[in-house]
Amino acid sequence: MNELSQIEMSVKAAQKMVGSATMQLDPEAIHHAENAIRDAKEIMNRSPKTGVDQEFLLKQQELLNQCEHQLSEAKQ
What we know:
This is DUF2564 family protein. This protein has helices spanning 3-24, 27-46, 54-75. The longest helix is centred in the first third of the chain and has 22 residues, at 3-24. 20% of the residues are buried. It is built from three helices and no strands. 84% of the residues lie in helices and 0% in strands.
């Protein structure tokens, strides 16, 4: 699996976990969703940045930002 695929998979996993956590409103599920977001960001930060991948990475970052916002709203 290449790095872009790994990033995409980690973002999708974070999205699913956030969706599940916001429906359950379970503190443990929310914690796991926060960890999934953090892990996805770490993978993105470790990947080499090239001009070709920039648009893809910006989109993935936007998706993670949406996840964080959704989780933040659910915690209130």
